[in-house]
Amino acid sequence: MSTVGNSANIFWHECPVGKQERQKLLNQKGCVVWITGLSGSGKSTLACSISRELHSRGNLSYVLDGDNLRHGLNKNLGFEAEDRAENIRRVGEVAKLFADAGLVCIASLISPYRKDRDACRAMLPESFIEVFMNMPLDLCEARDAKGLYKLARAGKIKGFTGLDDPYEPPLKCEIELSRRDGICPTPGAMAGKVVSYLEEKGFLETK
Ligand SMILES: Nc1ncnc2c1ncn2[C@@H]1O[C@H](COP(=O)(O)OS(=O)(=O)O)[C@@H](OP(=O)(O)O)[C@H]1O
Ligand SMILES: Nc1ncnc2c1ncn2[C@@H]1O[C@H](COP(=O)(O)OP(=O)(O)O)[C@@H](O)[C@H]1O
């Protein structure tokens, strides 16, 4: 019997079919690809490109997109630091479940605070791949695909990441994606780099 957080008198129940059996069935190893970066840096586009590439290779993946999850699981959270921290904690726990199911879980969230990302990493030793979308603020703002930078500049959105809210870039991540000679690689090229990394590390087969 244990107490975890506010849950007292709880018991962990083991099931006969575990992660190893699921991985053998899927011929892949569960892991979490965690994509972090500013709004407009290309996180969602990359996440979908990775998922498409994995699908074409016969690997099962699932995308957890910050924006999308805020329509349901995280609809009770705002953008204050503590809400962003809870957002990342919650998504980290869900991602861990997907990895335990044997999937390649692709999480794409701004996830601005290093300590929050590191807490997710600590939940997934040896199976957490942090991908930093290192695109400068001026590029993200020039894109402004959702018009949010314009609204933030006009004072209609307070605490917008990169403008009047912090973003702490990774100090040490598995993969850093950035422009080359001022040119942004295509989503396909970036997805290829991530998938090659997963292959090299043995996540895409168990046989
Ligand atoms: N204040 C503020 N700051 C940053 N982003 C904002 C904000 N308000 C709304 N949005 C929209 O929310 C998306 C980011 O949600 P996340 O869950 O990824 O954010 S976080 O990880 O909790 O910081 C983000 O989506 P992306 O552009 O895909 O990153 C925005 O569309
Ligand atoms: N590799 C890329 N090259 C050029 N434009 C891109 C690339 N990736 C994303 N974009 C564009 O940038 C904008 C933001 O992309 P998105 O994936 O929504 O970013 P985020 O999820 O980080 O907010 C979109 O208009 C998208 O088409």
From TrEMBL:
UniProt GO MF annotations: adenylylsulfate kinase activity; ATP binding
Protein keywords: Amino-acid biosynthesis, ATP-binding, Cysteine biosynthesis, Kinase, Nucleotide-binding, Transferase
Pfam families: APS_kinase
One Gene Ontology term, aspect cellular component: cytoplasm
Reactions catalysed, as given in the entry: adenosine 5'-phosphosulfate + ATP = 3'-phosphoadenylyl sulfate + ADP + H(+)
Protein's pathway: Sulfur metabolism; hydrogen sulfide biosynthesis; sulfite from sulfate: step 2/3
Protein origin, superkingdom: Eukaryota
Signal sequence region: none
Function in brief: Catalyzes the synthesis of activated sulfate.
HAMAP family: Adenylyl_sulf_kinase
Protein name, as recorded: Adenylyl-sulfate kinase
Annotated source species: Rhodamnia argentea
Gene: LOC115730560
